[in-house]
TrEMBL record:
The record marks 39, 46 as: Transition state stabilizer. Belongs to the IspD/TarI cytidylyltransferase family. IspD subfamily. It catalyses: 2-C-methyl-D-erythritol 4-phosphate + CTP + H(+) = 4-CDP-2-C-methyl-D-erythritol + diphosphate. NCBIfam families: ispD (TIGR00453). The keyword Nucleotidyltransferase applies. It comes from Kitasatospora kazusensis. The record marks 185, 251 as: Positions MEP for the nucleophilic attack. Pathway: Isoprenoid biosynthesis; isopentenyl diphosphate biosynthesis via DXP pathway; isopentenyl diphosphate from 1-deoxy-D-xylulose 5-phosphate: step 2/6. Keywords: Isoprene biosynthesis, Nucleotidyltransferase, Transferase. The keyword Nucleotidyltransferase applies. It holds the Pfam family IspD. This is 2-C-methyl-D-erythritol 4-phosphate cytidylyltransferase.
Length: 274
């Protein structure tokens, strides 16, 4: 399996890339994997923490590679770890897909932008998938790609909420927080990845966000944070649609999530040799 380490602006042409040129309908995926994982606690960068003896990142890339709709995966790694991440991915069988590694950035948004810059121009459909969502089923990946192929500009997989949600006024020092409202739960969704986009739309909103950041500078409150790529599409007036996600596509964020992920993986391995 070839795993080429490239700088975002200098992409070598490989035989696999030439195949990709012939099939623009094949999707490429960006995997932001440059986060520290502060909420998971001390240890290696989150993408390299192990689940069932295999790094989360490898699970996430495998989950994408399982889809016939995905032809290229670009991983945005911690900047200091690009060669190591390349070697790690090379050492795992990844279904013959073209896997590349670029240096990620200081924020998730920047990591996605840097990954996006490494995708050949002729690719028309781009997925963005967190390294921190190792167990997304292939059916979810396929459903997201299918919705973009059917004409949507931006597609997110999502699940209904189990808890009632309240909007509050945050308070310092653990003081009780006044409740402002209780949104109607039936209209709320918890959003997952991979999120899918028409490439031109994703590039445009990332470019606009970068320009907006440059002009807003550090002015407090100038730019409300956007935590997902679909949020950028919404910010600039685009239409985002939701397809069904999956409860096993949850994000490994806190220590308990890793315990749950181990249990899900053990169940899969016991039931189908996953
Ligand atoms: N500078 C960053 C920050 C985050 N991510 C990636 O974005 C995904 C979702 O982010 P999250 O779960 O919040 O990861 P972390 O930022 O690592 O977590 P934390 O906020 O707990 O530090 C992860 O795959 C993470 O590696 C990234 O590529 N570059
Ligand atoms: C993209 C995402 O996983 C969708 O749920 C989420 O928004 C990432 O947020 P985080 O703050 O980086 O965990």
């Amino acid at each position: 399996m070839l795993c080429t380490v490239v700088h975002a602006m200098a992409i070598p042409t490989s035989p696999k890339e030439r195949n990709l040129n012939a099939t623009a309908a094949v999707a490429a995926a960006v995997v932001p994997a440059a986060g520290r994982g502060e909420r998971l606690g001390p240890g290696a960068p989150k993408a390299l923490r192990e689940l069932g003896g295999v790094p989360l990142l490898v699970h996430a890339v495998r989950a994408l590679a399982r889809s016939r709709a995905v032809g290229l995966v670009v991983v945005a790694a911690p900047p200091e770890g690009v060669p190591e991440v390349g070697a790690l991915l090379d050492s795992h069988g990844l279904d013959g897909k073209d896997i590349r590694v670029v240096a990620g950035g200081a924020t998730r948004q920047e990591s996605v932008r840097l990954g996006l810059a490494a995708i050949p121009a002729e690719v028309e459909i781009v997925l963005v998938h967190d390294a921190a969502r190792p167990l997304v089923p292939v059916d979810v990946v396929d459903a997201v790609v299918a919705a973009v192929r059917s004409g949507a500009d931006a597609v997110v997989p999502a699940v209904p909420l189990a808890d009632t949600v309240k909007r509050v006024v945050p308070q310092a020092g653990g003081r009780p927080e006044p409740v402002v409202e209780t949104p109607e739960r039936a209209t709320l969704r918890a959003v997952q990845t991979p999120q899918g986009f028409r490439r031109a739309v994703l590039c445009e909103v990332h470019e606009k966000a970068l320009a907006e950041e440059a002009s807003a500078g550090q002015a407090e409150g100038a730019l409300p944070p956007v935590t997902d790529d679909a949020g950028l599409v919404e910010r600039f007036g685009g239409q985002v649609v939701v397809v069904p996600g999956h409860e096993e596509a949850f994000k490994v964020t806190r220590p308990l999530d890793l315990v749950l992920a181990e249990a899900v993986l053990a169940r899969r391995r016991a039931s189908d040799g996953f």
